Amino acid sequence: MSYETEFMKEFEAWIKTQVMINEMALTESKKVYEEDQDERAKEAMIRYESRLDAYQFLQGKFENFHAGK
Known about the structure:
Structural class: mainly alpha
Shape: elongated
Largest sheet: none
Order of helices and strands: HH
Radius of gyration: 16 Å
């Protein structure tokens, strides 16, 4: 396997992990904000949601790549 292929495979796996982590963090931040109305949790929600959007965008690019688009 070439270096580029190995890199893409590992990068795609890392993106999947980041999506999972940020989804969990977003869910927990929402729960904390709903329970305590903690402004720090609200700010964290915004950050996690923004990161999640970026990682999901990259996931879409990988899906297009695998589909040959």
